[in-house]
Amino acid sequence: MRQLTVSMQAKLDARATTFCHCWRLARRDGVIMGFTDHDRDLAFGDVTYRANTGLSASQIESMLGFGVGGAEASGALVDDGLCETDLLNGLYDGASVETWLVDWSRLEDRALLDVCTVGEIRRGEHVFSAELRSAAHVFDQPRGRAFQRGCAADLGDPRCRVDLDAASLRTTGAVVAFAGGVLTLDLAAPFETGFFAAGALSFLSGANERVRLTIKTHRQDGLRASIAFWTPPGGSISPGDMASLVGGCDKSPGACQNKFDNIVNFRGFPHMPGNDRVIAYPNSLAKAMDGGSFFR
């Protein structure tokens, strides 16, 4: 139950109030921003809540049990607020949003209404709208292991245990050009074609600094690399921008053994029978289908 001060409760019971809404947005990279629908800036809790940002929010829906409630926030894309480049680069994905009810005439009278997580973001020409999911959305996330051929771990995570800081798995490069969705870089060390496919590229400078993108394809010719992304960056890319690259894994046992020498930590079931085995008919010329292993 929310605890309200006596003066705040009295103002809520009155016919006319001096309340407004404030939103505290905390990105996963540590950046904290404040917004309010009041007509002047407000400050509390070491955060300044800026007015005139064009941000507004819908009603907050709450559901019984573990149902996922939520709301929607919409606003204008402005340089001193939420800019288009940051939205496109995913800097607000998974950000935490606190919604406060605040008495602008006495900031001590305030109440935390809800804490949500930014979900799907839709962008228009000059505006955006973001889905705000309640804390119950965490219970919708998959848990446990999946019975699948490919590895269920992510490269470098505690289950995989590959050291992504190893010099053999990463390098840096300078941007030469970006045209037709293909990024050309001069790398500090040569690698085989496809080594960085499914890996990650992080910009170290330029308009996309700190942005991390997943690599779709990688071609190598000496020190010159050609990289294509699944999703292009939101900011402009200029020659001379620096980036770091980390090798990728296709989650197959072959890559785990030959590329990373890490088959002991493989988290998949490569000998799992496929659909061809499930629908196969008994055949005197084939191996016996007695429930035993097909690989012994």
From TrEMBL:
Pfam families: Phage_BR0599 (PF09356), Phage_phiJL001_Gp84_N (PF09931). InterPro entries: Phage_phiJL001_Gp84, Phage_phiJL001_Gp84_C. Residues 194-276 form the Bacteriophage phiJL001 Gp84 C-terminal domain. Coiled coil: none annotated. It comes from the Bacteria. NCBIfam families: phg_TIGR02218. This is DUF2163 domain-containing protein. It comes from Methylocystis parvus.
